[in-house]
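Batch manifest line 156
LIGAND: FE2/S2 (inorganic) cluster
JOB: complex structure
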Amino acid sequence: MQKLLSEAFYLEMKKLEPKYPTRLALLLPALHAAQKETSWLSPVILEEIAKYIGIHPAQVREVASFYTMYNLKPVGKYHLKICTNVACILRGAEHLVKYCEKKWNIQCGETTSDKKFTLMEEECLGACGTAPAMMVNDDYYENLSVEQLEALIERL
Ligand code: FES
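JOB STATUS: finished
ARTIFACT:
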């Protein structure tokens, strides 16, 4: 099997190995590092990670599909994750979701046709005190209004 992950990925894993008690414990960092490199975790990438860790690809998929931060299908350049759990809904998160769906004519879970934006709902981003909260890629936006979201999207 030809390796798709870069030399930099394997070097990073080599550096991390001594910090983890077992190879299996490296699974989450490996998924993070792979996703950083490829933006989503395709079945062949999951297989390559399984080979590196020394487990069955189904085990890697089980873990990757449990966490919403791992993308198991391609995402746009900007991946918007809007929290729609109780604190955020009470503070108007559904207006943020509706704004994006209407603007781009897509539903949550979909990507715009130009591959620029992917819209997702999240259960809780851990920013309940500053609801409504949204992540764009790795960045947080809190106390977000529709006007602020609109301005942010224009900047992107
Ligand atoms: S409920 Fe939205 S961040 Fe927790």
